[in-house]
Amino acid sequence: MRKLSNEFVINLTPHTLNIIKADGSTIEIQPSGNIARVSSTSTVVATFKGINVSQQTFGDVINLPDSEEGIIYIVSRMVKDRVPDRPDVLVPGAPVRDAEGRVIGANGLSL
Fold it and tell me: Which of 3, 16, 44, 81 is the most exposed place for a label (fewest CB within 10 A)?
């Protein structure tokens, strides 16, 4: 198992992340201000009862820094799926919900 405790973690999502650690405690990771995204274009392909139907096409990852020793980047699943060979790019783990079903954190990080 790879240990990440000595790594520097950068949140490339627009949201504050509450990551639940192995010991049950929670670490809050603020957004860095830089958001990694997948570029997209949308084209209207049909109209149904006056409603445009569009098709979205996804392209390249934007705003994802190059790999750097000792740095872990947290991104969306869509971004991670575009860079599967980047072990320094992770996503929040499975959602953890409160009694009302609201997401209150993520169970660790995931590849």
Answer: 3
Q: Could you give the number of structural domains in the chain?
A: 1
Domain assignment present for residue 61? The answer is yes
| Single pTM value for the model | 0.84
Single-letter residue type at 79 = V
- Tokens 């405790």 — which residue? 5
Single-letter amino acid code for the residue at 67: S
Per-residue pLDDT of the chain (111 residues; tens, 9 = 90+): 455 555 699 999 999 999 999 999 999 999 999 999 999 999 999 999 999 999 999 999 999 999 999 999 999 999 999 999 999 999 999 999 999 999 999 999 999
Across the strands, what pairs with 19? Answer: 27, 106
CA distances from 21 to 28, 54, 77, 85, 91 (A): 10, 41, 20, 24, 14
One-letter amino acid at 96 equals V
Give residue 64's domain range. 8-110
